[in-house]
Amino acid sequence: MGTFFDWFTALLQSMRTWAAIGLLCLVLTWSFPAQAASTIDPQLEQQVLQIIREHPEAIVESVQAYQQQQQQKIKQVQQAFLQDLKTNPQTVIGESPTTGSTKSKTLLVEFSDFQCPYCAEAHKTLKELLAKYPDKLRLVYKNLPLISIHPEALPAATAAWAAHQQGKFWQYHDALFTNQKQLGEALYLDIAKKLNLNLGKFKRDLTLATPAITKDIQLADKLAVSGTPFFVINSPNFLGVVQLSDVNSILADAK
């Protein structure tokens, strides 16, 4: 196994190469705009590469500055989200399904994936919390299907959204998690039948779900949510990202 130093050296060398290529292209474009696609002057190329070799710290500093800028942007978005959650929660809720007390002072926003096993476990805990604190908690569901590793996450979210259009999101949501190992088109239709949904409307709504789900995914991306389940809470005594294991104590302390 290579050391961190070996890895970093290789990374730095790669960065040097790409920076050299980029800088070289810029120089050629500025110097010879009509001949930018022509053969590169070997002498000029060597001069540029020599500059990069002699000043690798400039590359590292540029990368670090870029990373800091990105982190600052993410932090600003997160702070704005938390402010909205505190002062105007309806802007955060939007058209998302909610359950629990509408009069509750505690709002829990969940980003979830119907094929994620950790979300299935969280679902059980959330059911217990909603039963234990019926007047203290309101849960908001946001979609974050991890499509790169969960091929049925997006189809399941689409089916749940279609059920939501007939007022049956939470029943459908529960059935999806209960039957998580059987996720697929046959299950989605079977659940719809068992919930007595209008199947014609259900099938039509399956084709209309993309904008709503995409909106949730974009919000998660802006907040730099990297996995599921992910929770943000607004309660009388706590505001911010929270572990589900801590929600019970937060609710117990809430007035």
**What is the chains' assembly state?**
single chain
Strand order of the largest sheet: 1-3-2-4-5
Structural class: alpha+beta
Number of strands: 5
Description:
The protein is globular and about 75 Å long. Helices cover 62% and strands 10% of the residues. With 255 residues, it is α+β, with helices and mostly antiparallel strands. α1 (4-31) crosses α2 and α6 runs antiparallel to α7 (169-178). The longest helix is centred in the first third of the chain and has 32 residues, at 56-87. α5 links the parallel β2 (107-112) and β3 (138-143).
Q: What's the gist of this structure?
A:
The protein is built from 11 helices and 5 strands; from the N terminus they run H-H-H-H-E-E-H-E-H-H-H-H-H-E-E-H. With 255 residues, the chain is α+β, with helices and mostly antiparallel strands. It has a 5-stranded mixed beta sheet with strand order 1-3-2-4-5, with helices on both faces.
Secondary structure layout plus pairing:
Elements: H1 4-31, H2 42-54, H3 56-87, H4 89-93, E1 98-100, E2 107-112, H5 117-132, E3 138-143, H6 153-164, H7 169-178, H8 185-194, H9 199-206, H10 210-222, E4 230-235, E5 238-241, H11 244-253
Parallel strand pairs: 2-3
Antiparallel strand pairs: 1-3, 2-4, 4-5
Helix pairs in contact: 1-2, 6-7, 6-9
Key words describing this protein structure:
255 residues, 5-stranded mixed sheet, 5 strands, 10% strand
